[in-house]
Specification:
2 domains; alpha+beta; 376 residues; 22% helix; 6 helices; single chain; Porin
């Protein structure tokens, strides 16, 4: 009887922890993963060019039985000019509780004039949760026939779904998401992530990005933070910030060509430093881009059409401008302008002339929007 009471007390404590951290996407997500929020916002799948691969691990050093171990892997890519697809798998372990989450994301980019857009995304997948009795203290003394241990509350597979928005206006980005708002047999989940980023150029080589974040977390106190990230030629970056749970957070990273590696640390706050160590995180990123053949770059407008020009302009509009790709984007824009100047336009019939006029108007608006992005 005593052992059963101990077990029930242990489960109640861990259940509270599990409820507070029910999202297998990380509680401290915004502390380190700035620059890529694919793990919590499905709208992110439309943002970056190429195929993007992400590997991330986070470990919380602690003497508590429910210390966190989180491992995530994901891949996403644009699918056409205005949409994107993604897939991710997250494994989360907190003492006796273990969760395996897998979902598929779809996003759509609705572009507006004057260089701003609204990206929208949804995700759907499965989440399996279970309790591993062998991780409990003195588990060999526990009555394994106790129905509490096999309860569907702790051992279940749920269908999950979520949604997200990412609004961009020149150097400002605002993100909001509910990464797991729906589960098959669980009530509405009000876990919310939100952040606002602002990009400031500091000369030709440096970029400073101040940003703020807010996370509404059921049961526990909501988490807010303010951070500053500084980048050098998109190769080296450092970040520092403070959260309202009395924690400082720092991170640094390096990117070589299309490969990135970063490390983040958040020391424990004063109230829990005796029982819970800091959080350490390592992230690896890889971007696979298609190299254009030389003949493809020099294709003249006589072998293409206004549709091809519009498609290439859409691709430019969909890319974020960085110090690494700015010169390439300018060269691409100049090449498109030359194609337009040499284009063979068929406006022999009144119907065709109207369509061509509409295309030329759209092309002119897209070129102005791109030039405004390149010259803010």
């Amino acid at each position: 009887m005593i052992m059963k009471r101990i077990l029930l007390t242990y489960i109640v404590v861990l259940a509270i922890a599990q409820s507070a951290f029910s999202q297998v996407t990380n509680y401290d997500f915004y502390a380190f993963r700035t620059g890529n929020m694919f793990n919590v916002n499905p709208a992110w799948v439309t943002k970056d060019e190429g195929i993007n691969v992400l590997l991330n691990t986070q470990i919380m050093g602690s003497t508590l039985g429910y210390a966190q171990r989180n491992l995530s892997a994901g891949v996403y890519s644009q699918a056409g000019n205005n949409s994107g697809l993604g897939l991710k798998v997250i494994s989360d372990s907190r003492g006796a509780f273990q969760t395996l989450h897998a979902d598929v994301s779809y996003g759509f980019n609705a572009r507006f004039s004057e260089g701003h857009s609204l990206r929208m995304g949804v995700l759907a997948g499965l989440e399996n949760s279970n309790i591993n009795i062998s991780r409990l203290d003195s588990y060999e003394l526990i009555d394994m026939s106790d129905p509490t241990l096999s309860s569907n509350y702790y051992n279940n597979t749920q269908f999950v779904a979520g949604a997200g928005l990412l609004y961009s206006f020149h150097d400002l980005e605002v993100s909001a998401s509910v990464p797991q708002i729906v589960s098959t047999s669980k009530p509405f989940n009000s876990y919310v992530n939100a952040a606002a980023f602002y990009r400031i150029k500091a000369g030709e080589k440096f970029v400073v990005q101040p940003w703020i974040s807010y996370q509404h977390i059921p049961v526990t106190k909501s988490l807010m933070g303010g951070y500053v990230k500084a980048s050098y030629k998109d190769v080296l970056w450092m970040q520092a910030g403070y959260q309202n749970n009395k924690c400082f957070a720092g991170a640094l990273g390096v990117t070589y060509e299309n490969v990135g590696l970063s490390y983040g640390v958040r020391p424990s706050n004063p109230e829990f430093k005796e029982v819970a160590g800091g959080v350490h995180e390592i992230a690896f990123t890889l971007r696979i881009t298609r190299k254009k053949a030389k003949s493809e770059k020099t294709t003249t407008a006589t072998s293409t059409g206004l549709e091809d020009i519009m498609s290439r302009l859409d691709n430019l509009l969909n890319q974020d401008i960085t110090t690494r790709n700015e010169s390439d984007l300018r060269a691409e824009l100049n090449a498109i302008k030359q194609m337009l100047a040499k284009a063979e336009i068929d406006n022999s019939a009144p119907g065709k002339a109207k369509i061509v006029q509409q295309q030329l108007t759209a092309i002119e608006e897209k070129i102005r929007a791109i030039e405004k992005k390149l010259n803010p």
